[in-house]
Give the backbone structure.
Amino acid sequence: MTAGKSLAELRAGGKPALARALARLESSPDDAGMTALLDAAYVTPTAQVIGLTGPPGVGKSTLAGALIQAYRRVGKTVAVIAIDPSSKRSGGALLGDRTRLRTDPDDNGIFVRSMAARDQLGGLAEITYAAMVLMRALYDVVLIETVGVGQSETDIALAADTVLFCVQPGSGDALQFMKAGIVEIPDIIAVTKGDLGRAATRAQADVKGALGLTEGRQDAADWSVPVLIVSANAAEGVDKLVAAIGEHAAWLGADGRLSVKRAAQAGAWTQAAIKERWGREGLRRLSHLSSGSVTDLTRETPFQALAGFARQL
Ligand code: GDP
């Protein structure tokens, strides 16, 4: 079975085929057929990958539901990876649909999968990235939802093209996220529960103020982080949010920014995967290898790089 054929089969097979592929990814991530499938998926991305993060209770699941509906209305297909923070240390198991997200099970344009959070690689398991790569080649939008409790905000930036950070009105989140040093992570900030009125506009002003205070965001010159008020419950502001996500995609698409970003993510993932599997010894060996052998992802996919590294051990 060639990789191209299997990716085509995956496209044709719909949700059951993807579910089977994810199960295979979990049971035998290193088999040659799986690596070939991941390679094929890696080089044919179709989706914008959106990372949705923020503290528990901020309204991420509700907003994810609203975003899915908005994308489905314009005919875009959506795959969701919901990182389940309650199941750390469960070995990166794919959990089935344990997410609170409610979607129409008969809609073939939506695929939802929960995954266990991990301690290693921050909140994102090695397998999450591979699953994202598969979904990225099959859908128009991939949404990765993760609870923002420190490290996971940084990790989401290792997988997402566009990071959407949610802030709760009246919670002090605005100041909190300044303090936590994650101000550089989000590409878009959504103040949730806009129906709360003044508390939401105050939070928006606080966040804008906090952003204004930070100097040195690398791309500040050409991408200014929008701070938008949304109410998923009242279905207000969601269209503007979708538009902002689209504008970020367009911005990334210009001047090759997206490929640079994805290549950097792939490199970081490869290194993290090597560290997770082979520990410090793996990283030491990595640094001893001649440059270009593993980390030159212009010549090989991260999955080939990882397999190649394993062979050299
Ligand atoms: P998550 O933990 O970040 O995924 O948050 P949820 O989506 O589960 O929402 C947490 C709580 O906030 C729930 O009780 C929701 O009903 C409520 N919530 C979510 N969105 C809104 C909104 O737009 N307005 C209001 N008033 N409440 C909301």
Observations:
- Residues 56-62, 100, 192-193, 195-196, 231-233 surround guanosine-5'-diphosphate (CB under 6 Å).
- The two ends are 28 Å apart (CA to CA).
